[in-house]
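Database export, one record per block. Field names are fixed; values are copied verbatim from the stored entry.
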Amino acid sequence: MFALRAEKRIVKGVKITGLFAFVTFFPTALIGCIFIVFFAVYKEVPGFGPGNMKIALGGIETFFGVFLGAISDSLFGTRHQMTEHARP
């Protein structure tokens, strides 16, 4: 973040919030969920076969896509906001 803003000096900030900690941990949890899904199919957990694996992976992928979309919107803005700023 500091490199993108070309800041020379970094001032000590405040302690991070719980929300920030959750946002930084969330991708790791999603990747962990993918491994759990594959492990459950490998160990042949009752009621959890290849069909359920596709549904579970689709759900994980959807949550991860929404998460990345929210981060992208907060960092770069939406397309509508970008076109408003580009007008003379």
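Remark 1: The radius of gyration is 19 Å.
Remark 2: Residues 34 and 57 are 7 Å apart (CA to CA).
End of record.
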